[in-house]
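Me: I hope this is not a bother. Any chance you could explain this protein sequence and its C-alpha cells? It all follows right here:
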Amino acid sequence: MDITIVGAGYVGLVTGTCLASFGFNVNCIDNNKAKIDNLNKGILPIYEPGLDALILTNTKRGRLNFTTNLTGTVEKSDAVFLAVGTPSKKDSEEADLTFLFDAAKEVGKAIDRYTVVVIKSTVPVGTCRRVKAFIKKINPKADFDVTSNPEFLREGSAIEDFMRPDRIVVGVENERSRQVMDNIYKPLFLLETPIVFTTLETSEFSKYASNAFLATKICFINQLADLSEKCGANIQHISKIMGLDRRIGKEFLHAGPGYGGSCFPKDTMALSFFARNFGTSMSIVDTVISANSDRKFKMAEKVISACGNSVKDKKIAVLGVTFKPDTDDIRDAPSLVIIPELQRAGALISANDPASREAEKSLTNVDWQSCPYATCKNADAVVIITEWNQFRSLDLCRLKKIMKSPIMVDLRNVYSASEVELAGFVYESIGRGKV
C-alpha cells in the first residue's frame, strides 16, 4: 500500500514514520523545501525521543521518503493523510482551517484513482464533509472518500502512543473506505488494540472531548492544590488517593503551573467556540480556559512571594522552559508567562532547558546556560518549571554552595520538602507541606 502524508510537522512525521515501520511505502510531503532538504539529511525540525533513529531506519530501507512533489505522490497513493496545523485564528478562539483547505485543494486536483483522504488534523465537527464537498467541486471526476482519524499522541512519548495506542478512532461513510483504514491499522490487531469505527462527526468530536476532559483534570487538581496550601493538606497524597479510584485514574492529576502545548489550549478554545455557534453552553470548559490562564500569572506571584515579595535586580535561575519534558515545544508553555512576569518585576533571568532551541527565539533578555549549575551560580532563587529528568537528581549541597541565596520554588513537586530543607534551602512547592 502506498501512503502519502501531507505535512512534515509533529503529527505528520510521527504518523508517516510509524506507518513506514508497519511496512507501507510512505511519502511525507511539505511545501517547505528547506525542511524537506534537512529531513533528507537526517535533520529533524522537532525533538521527539526515538524519532530520529526510526526515520533513519525506514529511509535506509526505502520505505520512507521526503519530498515537495505532492502531485506525483498523490497520484499513486491509496491513502492521503492530511496532517497540517489547525491553530487558533488570530484574536479568535475559532480553529483556522486555512492550511487544511490549501492542502485539500492540491490533493483534490492530483487524485487520479480511488483514494481515501484521511483527516488527521484536529478539526471542528463537520470539517470532513466540508473537505469532501470542496474536493468534489475542484475535481468532479475524482474517485475518493474522506475519513476522520484523529491523533491522540503525547509529545515526548508519541512513538509509543502510535505503536501501542489506547484506541484508534476512525470516522467513515462506507465499507469501501472502512476496508482501507482497516488494512492500514491491521498491524495493531495482534495487540488487540480497540479500533472504533464511527461516523465522521463523532470521530471529529472525540478529539476535542478527550482533550477538554484532560485539561479539566489538570485545572481541577491545580485548584485543589491551592486549597491544600491553605488548609494544610498534601496534594500529592490527595492525587494518589484519587488516582487509585479506577473511575478517576491517576493520569493528569499532577499539580503544576498549568497546561500548555500544541493541543489543550487551542482545542479547549475551539470546542468552546464551536459550542457557542450551536447555542450550547460549555461553561465548564470556559472556566478551565480562564483558570489555566490565571494560574500561570499566579505562579509568577508565587516566585516573587518566595523571594520576600520582591525580585527587583535579583537573579532568578529557571530550570525548564518547554511545556513538558522530552519535547522542544514551548507553545503556550507556562514559562512564556512566568518569565516575562518576573522580568517585569525587575528580575534578571538565567535559564537552562535540554531542548531550548525554540524558547531562545521566543524569550528575550534571558541568559541561557548549558547546565543547571551554571544557571544557578550566584542566583537569588531557583525555579523548576519543567520536570526534565536532569533536574530530578541535582546535587542540592553543591547547588546551595554556588547560589547567592538558597531559595527553591518547585512548581512540579520534583523534590520532597524534607530533603531540600535538609540541604539548607528555603523551599516552596505546590499544594503540600513536608513529606
